[in-house]
Amino acid sequence: MNSPQPIHVAIIGGGLCGLALAVALKQRDISFKVYEARSSFTELGAGINIGPNTLEAFRLIDASLGNAYLATAARNPSGKEHVWFDVRLGAAIDGHKDGETITSLMAPPTGSMCIGRDALLQLLAQKAGLLDGPGRVSAAFDKKLTHLEQSASGVTMHFEDGTSEQASAVVACDGIHSAAPAVPQYSEAGVYRAMLPVQELEKVLGHDMARTSQVFPGPKGYLILYPVSDTMMNTGFWVWRRGTWPHREWVLPGRKNKMDDDLRDWGDTVRGIMNLAPNPPFMATHYHAVQPESHWRNRVCLIGDAAHAMPPHAGAGSGQAMEDAYVMAEVFRLVNKIDHTQAEVNAAFSAYEAVRRPRYQSIVETSVESMHTWSDLYDTSITQERLADWTKLAHTRFESIWNHDIGADARNAQAMMREKLKRQTAI
What we know:
With 427 residues, the protein is α+β, with helices and mostly antiparallel strands. The protein has helices at residues 16-27, 52-61, 63-72, 117-127, 198-205, 256-262, 268-274, 305-308, 317-335, 342-376, 384-402, 406-426, and strands spanning 8-12, 31-35, 47-50, 74-75, 83-88, 101-106, 113-116, 139-140, 145-150, 155-159, 164-167, 169-172, 185-197, 214-218, 221-227, 232-240, 251-252, 282-287, 296-297, 300-302. The longest helix has 35 residues, at 342-376. It holds the Pfam family FAD_binding_3.
């Protein structure tokens, strides 16, 4: 009689979510392997803004990861450490000047903590032991999944290169383009995005503001600006594009002329910032507007953007991926201590989804609404009463993302899993 084998988890996708799960599983002595379709760990995109909940997720995944992030992340200048974003007007209105700071959104203890996406990816790969040494065997590149075959004992993965491998369970972390049940929908908005040198921004904004995270609400859109290093700032100029998206590609290169048209009613400050972007692309935002009944089936589960891609207007997508990875690792910790029958894997996935789904669905909705939060402020009369109401609404909306007990989520998922297994044993 064969003795039970410890669970082995296949992670499809070596992006931020997949590597965060790899770190979490490694920390808990759970066997895993990452399958990445590209030839290396590479993250597209400029930078991400980390809120208090994400920092807590880093610490819960691996305490050393939280410390490493704190040592790496770019922050606002001295005196602005607890500021998430200064809110400044993108054009003059109601007696307020162009570029005037009208309020600040606070997010203690982190304030605005940002990092380049690829820098974070390399940090996660290093913490997962996947960059060099014996841990390298836990990652495989140029592995594009074509299909899966499930059985009562495990999952067989088939790849485009003709190879096949097996695992006890598969977690798909391959992003919004995953072959997932949910089809991404166009959000009717998009962004001109660029990385700008602080040295050049100083000529437009001055020394301190060229290094501070800011949002500029303006005519039918907003501009966001935040540091990703000591020398570079990430900027995104968001505008509405109502109707359907007419192009096959989501990213259209070289759109400066169209951007100049969109900037026509904006003030000199925002125009000065975007004039530093030589010829930026326009990226149409898509998200999972409609969710399937479940994101797991038997021994396969989708997490991160593969399950719940969201617009970036609340700065919450990466944080939700980190929370997903932590809770998933905690239910796998329980599976790892018992014989991993399909019933136990199903109990793990079911408990994970029962806890996580209400939270990430709520944040998808908040992220969609946040485009209105930023862009609609300028299009209404900016009285002191209106500004106070708006600031209160913004804090309430974003604090619901930041101030959440992620550790309690994991404990609740483990308790649900134990209860499910207990009921199954009693039948």
